[in-house]
Specification:
With 291 residues, this protein is an alpha/beta fold. It contains 10 helices and 11 strands. A hairpin with a 7-residue loop joins strand 9 and strand 10. Helix 1 runs parallel beside helix 10 and helix 6 crosses helix 10.
Length: 291
């Protein structure tokens, strides 16, 4: 069993990005600048945004964090997005999800300028992705592709089963894995809450991408020997034996599934760090596009 180490791989990618930033600034191209909008004070979101800010500093990027109150109106949030769209200093920006329930997430994502949409969520970029045209790929699927590529996990002709159909991971992952690319050319089955006989399907999979948000859902009896497993989930589970009072669990029961796996991502330290690294990669591309 080989551990797909997202922490080490993302550090390598950030080093590569830092070298490229130095080269660009040396020839007079401005330093890439990433902004993040954070609404409210959700602990997990704040941790994640802070990790992005640290990654920016490591790669030599400028970064701006726009913190807004939980009770902000949808209209005021849209005005903040307009400001970032118009600001020539900002190359790319993200709106940290989830948003408070009184705000229409789709309306907010639609308001982001596609040329600054480094999360790859705008319909313009999703459409380009589906047509395999140059664009910003959604950061988490992009990170998964990069992990598979760098660890030389064979995907061509393999059966990939994606569990979960979210617009952020499951749906784009199914499209990307079927396309002609290094980590692609696979036959893809996308499954979800209405799928019947899920275990029969997952037991046929050469590669499983688990992205449904239910901790330790995928168990050893649901996979075949030699499977490669990408665990996208991360959930806090109360655990009094831990200093923090909780532990982090993925969508995969790691202890049992890892014994049957050829490759598997850990949680934490797998897909999460890769998501941040690919967000940086998209921001670098945005800066190059604007230079």
């Amino acid at each position: 069993m080989v551990l797909l180490d997202g922490k080490a791989t993302s550090a390598q990618i950030k080093d590569e990005i830092a070298i490229e930033v130095q080269k660009l600034t040396a020839i007079g191209i401005k330093t890439p600048h990433l902004a993040a909008i954070l609404v409210g004070s959700d602990g997990a979101s704040l941790t994640y945004v802070n990790a992005k800010v640290k990654a920016c500093a490591k790669a030599g990027f400028e970064s701006t964090l726009v913190k807004l109150p939980e009770e902000i109106s949808e209209n005021d949030l849209l005005n903040e997005i307009k400001k970032l769209n118009k600001n020539p200093e900002i190359d790319g920006f993200i709106v940290q999800l989830p948003l408070p329930k009184h705000i229409d997430e789709q309306k907010v994502l639609m308001a982001v300028n596609p040329d600054k949409d480094v999360d790859g969520f705008h319909p313009t970029n999703v459409g380009k992705m589906a047509l395999n045209l140059p664009t910003f790929l959604p950061a988490t699927p992009f990170g998964i592709l990069e992990l598979l590529k760098r660890y030389e996990v064979e995907t061509s002709g393999k059966h990939v089963v994606v569990i979960g159909r979210s617009h952020i991971v499951g749906s784009p992952m199914s499209i990307l894995m079927a396309q002609k690319r290094t980590a692609g050319n696979a036959t893809v089955t996308i499954t979800h809450s209405r799928t019947k006989n899920l275990k029969e399907i997952t037991r046929q999979a050469d590669i499983i991408v688990a992205a449904l948000g239910i901790p330790e859902f995928l168990t050893a009896d649901m996979v075949k020997d030699g499977v490669s497993v990408i665990d996208v989930g991360i959930t806090r589970i109360a655990d009094e034996s831990k200093k923090r009072g909780y532990r982090l669990a993925g969508d995969v029961h790691f202890e049992s599934v890892s014994k049957k796996s050829s490759f598997i991502t850990p949680v934490p330290g797998g897909v999460g760090p890769m998501t941040i690294a690919m967000l940086m990669k998209n921001t670098l591309q945005a800066a190059k596009n604007r230079s």
